[in-house]
Backbone:
C-alpha cells in the first residue's frame, strides 16, 4: 500500500535504531514512583501483636511532602518470562509480548524524535545540554517536553494494544486506573509507564492468558488517561497534526486516536436481490443508489466525491409498520455493498447496534455506542451501520421510562451523527429503523438526513409478487395472468412515487399547503417556498432549521439522481480505481439540474413524515391518558360500592 497524501511514512530504519534503548528499558532500570504507590508485599509478623514497620516519614521542614519511596528495579523481561511458572523456556505468547513491547517502544521513541525535529524542542535540548538555554525560553522548553512525553507515552500504549491484539483471548483483567502518568520528559514518561505495567503484571499475571490480558488492559487504560491529560492545553500540535504510517505493521497513527486494523465482519445474513424487496419503491431505490455511492469513496484522498459535491446520505431513517420489509431492505443493501466490495477488493464492515448493547453498568452503554460508531466510521473500510428498533435502544431525553443506558446511547448518537466533531468522509452510512419513530427523541430523529418510508406492498401486483416470492418454486400452482415482478421495475415505480408527493398526504400538512397556495399562488420561487416552510413551522414548532438542512440535502440527492452504471461496479478499473479528481469529474457530468418540483416534493416528503410522527405521538399519549382516566373512574366506582 502506498503512503497517502495525509500520511507520513515512519521508516523501518528509524524505528530499529531505537531498539537498543528499548531493549535496555525492558531488561532493567530503576524508577522511584512519583504518583502511584508501589505494591508492598505483606511481611510476616515477628510476634503476636507487633506489626511490620511503617515507611519512614521525614520530619524535616520542606521535605514532608517529598516522596521517600526507594527506587525499585524494573525487569519486565524477567517478569514476563515468569508468567508461566517453572517452565525454563519462553513460550510463543511470552515472546510475542516481549517483541511487541520492544517494537512499541521503538515506534514511540521514533515519534518522539520526529516531534523534536518538527518543533523547537530539538534546538532547546541542545541549548540545555550546553548550558546556554536562556531563562526566557525555559517555559517553552518545559511545555514542549510535556508535549513530547504525552505523544511518546500515547504512541507506546497505542502501538502495544495494536501489535498484541492478535494475542488476546477470552480472558479479561480489570487493572484499575493508571496513575504513574509522568510528563516531565519522554524517557521519564516511558519509565513510569513500564514501572506501573510491571506492578500490574506482579498483581494479575498468574498465567500466560492473564499476562497478555493485563498488558492489553493496561495499554487501553494508559491511552485513555493520556488522551484526557492532553486536552489540558499541552503543546501537542506537532503530534496531532501529522499522521504516521508504519507499513510493516499495517499501523496508522493519528494523534490521540486508537489505531485499528481494516478488518471486515464475516456476514452470515441472507442477502436479498432488489426484485425480492416488494413495494418500498423509493426506499429500495435510494438504498441501491446509496450502495453505489459508497463505492465511489477514494481511499487515497479519504473522501467521497458525493460527500464533496453534495448528495451523500450519511444518516437515514427507515420507518414503517411491522412486517413491511425493513429487515429485507437491510439485507438487500448489505448484500449489494458486500458484492461490490468483493469485486473491488475493498474491506467491508457491517455492524448492527442492538438492544443487547444496552448495559446496566453506568457508562458502559455509551462506550458500546461509541465503539460501534468508531468501527463503522473507520476511514480504511467501507462501513454500513444499522440501529434496528432505535425507539427501544435510544431513550427520549426527559423520559422517566428510559434507562440511564438508553440516555447515554442517545447522547452518543446525537454527537456522532451531527455534532461539532462530525466529519463525513463518505465511506460509511448509518441507518436507523423503527416501527414507532414517534417514540424516538425529536433531536435524534432530525439527525437522520433522509427518510425512507418502508410501507411494504401496496398494489394488487405487489401482493401477487410477494405471494409468488414467498411460496417458492416447490409447488405446481399456476401463476395466472400476471407478469412476475414487472411492478417492481424500479425506475417506473420510483417516478410514480415521487410524483405522489406533489401534494402532501398528511391532513394537517395538506391544510397548510392548500392555505398557503391559495394565498400566494403556485410555489415556484424561493420566496414562496420559504413562506410555505414558515407556515409549516407555525403548525409544528419542531420543524426547525435542521429540517430545512435535511430537505436541501435530500434535494441535492435528487440532483444526483442517476444510476452509476453496473459495469463501473463489476469492472473497478472503469471508475473505482481511477484518481479522485477523475472520479469527481465523471460524477459531475451525470448531475441533474434542480427543479421546483424536486424541492416541493422533498419538502412534502420530509414534512409528511414529521407530521405523521407528531400525530402518532400525540394520539398514543391521548389514548394512554384516556385509559388512565377510565381506570380511575372504575376504581372510584368500586371503592364507593365497597363503602356502601
Residues:
Amino acid at each position: 500500500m502506498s503512503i497517502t497524501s495525509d500520511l507520513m511514512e515512519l521508516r523501518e530504519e528509524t524505528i530499529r535504531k531505537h531498539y537498543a534503548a528499548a531493549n535496555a528499558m525492558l531488561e532493567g532500570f530503576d524508577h522511584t514512583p512519583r504518583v502511584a504507590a508501589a505494591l508492598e508485599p505483606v511481611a510476616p509478623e515477628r510476634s503476636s501483636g507487633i506489626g511490620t514497620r511503617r515507611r519512614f516519614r521525614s520530619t524535616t521542614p520542606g521535605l514532608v511532602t517529598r516522596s521517600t519511596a526507594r527506587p525499585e528495579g524494573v525487569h519486565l523481561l524477567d517478569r514476563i518470562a515468569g508468567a508461566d511458572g517453572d517452565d525454563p523456556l519462553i513460550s510463543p505468547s511470552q515472546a510475542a509480548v516481549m517483541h511487541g513491547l520492544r517494537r512499541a517502544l521503538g515506534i514511540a521513541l521514533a515519534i518522539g524524535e520526529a516531534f523534536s525535529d518538527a518543533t523547537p524542542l530539538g534546538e532547546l535540548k541542545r541549548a540545555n545540554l550546553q548550558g546556554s538555554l536562556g531563562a526566557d525560553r525555559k517555559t517553552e522548553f518545559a511545555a514542549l517536553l510535556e508535549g513530547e512525553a504525552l505523544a511518546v507515552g500515547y504512541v507506546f500504549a497505542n502501538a502495544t494494544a495494536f501489535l498484541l491484539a492478535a494475542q488476546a483471548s477470552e480472558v479479561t483483567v480489570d487493572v484499575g486506573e493508571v496513575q504513574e502518568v509522568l510528563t516531565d520528559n519522554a524517557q521519564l514518561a516511558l519509565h513510569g509507564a513500564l514501572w506501573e505495567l510491571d506492578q500490574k503484571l506482579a498483581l494479575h499475571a498468574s498465567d500466560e492468558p492473564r499476562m497478555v490480558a493485563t498488558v492489553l488492559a493496561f495499554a487501553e487504560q494508559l491511552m485513555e488517561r493520556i488522551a484526557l491529560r492532553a486536552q489540558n492545553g499541552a503543546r501537542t500540535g506537532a503530534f496531532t497534526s501529522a499522521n504516521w504510517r508504519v507499513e510493516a505493521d499495517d499501523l496508522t497513527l493519528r494523534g490521540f486516536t486508537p489505531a485499528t486494523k481494516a478488518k471486515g465482519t464475516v456476514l452470515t445474513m441472507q442477502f436479498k436481490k432488489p426484485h425480492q424487496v416488494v413495494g418500498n419503491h423509493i426506499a429500495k431505490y435510494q438504498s441501491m443508489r446509496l450502495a453505489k455511492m459508497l463505492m465511489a469513496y477514494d481511499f487515497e484522498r479519504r473522501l467521497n466525491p458525493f460527500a464533496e459535491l453534495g448528495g451523500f446520505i450519511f444518516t437515514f431513517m427507515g420507518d414503517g409498520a411491522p412486517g413491511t420489509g425493513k429487515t429485507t431492505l437491510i439485507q438487500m443493501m448489505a448484500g449489494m455493498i458486500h458484492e461490490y466490495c468483493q469485486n473491488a477488493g475493498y474491506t467491508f464492515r457491517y455492524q448492527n447496534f442492538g438492544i443487547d448493547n444496552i448495559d446496566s453498568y453506568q457508562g458502559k452503554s455509551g462506550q458500546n455506542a461509541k465503539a460501534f460508531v468508531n468501527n463503522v466510521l473507520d476511514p480504511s473500510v467501507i462501513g454500513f451501520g444499522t440501529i434496528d428498533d432505535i425507539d427501544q435502544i435510544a431513550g427520549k431525553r426527559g423520559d422517566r421510562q428510559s434507562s440511564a443506558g438508553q440516555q447515554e446511547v442517545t447522547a452518543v448518537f446525537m454527537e456522532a451523527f451531527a455534532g461539532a466533531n462530525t466529519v463525513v468522509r463518505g465511506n460509511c452510512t448509518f441507518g436507523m429503523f423503527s416501527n414507532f419513530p414517534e417514540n424516538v427523541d425529536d433531536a435524534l430523529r432530525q439527525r437522520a438526513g433522509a427518510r425512507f418510508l418502508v410501507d411494504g406492498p401496496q398494489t394488487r401486483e405487489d401482493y401477487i409478487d410477494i405471494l409468488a416470492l414467498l411460496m417458492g418454486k416447490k409447488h405446481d400452482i399456476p401463476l395466472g395472468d400476471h407478469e412476475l415482478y414487472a411492478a417492481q421495475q424500479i425506475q417506473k415505480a420510483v417516478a410514480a412515487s415521487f410524483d405522489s408527493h406533489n401534494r402532501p398526504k398528511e391532513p394537517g400538512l395538506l391544510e397548510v399547503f392548500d392555505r398557503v397556495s391559495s394565498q400566494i399562488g403556485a410555489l415556484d420561487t424561493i420566496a414562496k417556498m420559504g413562506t410555505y416552510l414558515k407556515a409549516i413551522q407555525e403548525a409544528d414548532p419542531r420543524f426547525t432549521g435542521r429540517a430545512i438542512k435535511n430537505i436541501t440535502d435530500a434535494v441535492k440527492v435528487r440532483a444526483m439522481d442517476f444510476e452509476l452504471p453496473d459495469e463501473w461496479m463489476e469492472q473497478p478499473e472503469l471508475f473505482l480505481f481511477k484518481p479522485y479528481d477523475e472520479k469527481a469529474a465523471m460524477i459531475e457530468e451525470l448531475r441533474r439540474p434542480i427543479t421546483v418540483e424536486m424541492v416541493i416534493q422533498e419538502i412534502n416528503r420530509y414534512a409528511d413524515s414529521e407530521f405523521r410522527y407528531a400525530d402518532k405521538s400525540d394520539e398514543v399519549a391521548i389514548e394512554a391518558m384516556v385509559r388512565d382516566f377510565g381506570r380511575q373512574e372504575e376504581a372510584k366506582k368500586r371503592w364507593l360500592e365497597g363503602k356502601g
The longest strand covers residues 382-388. Residues 8-37+71-254 form one domain. Residues 1-5, 40-60, 62-70 have pLDDT under 50 and may be disordered.
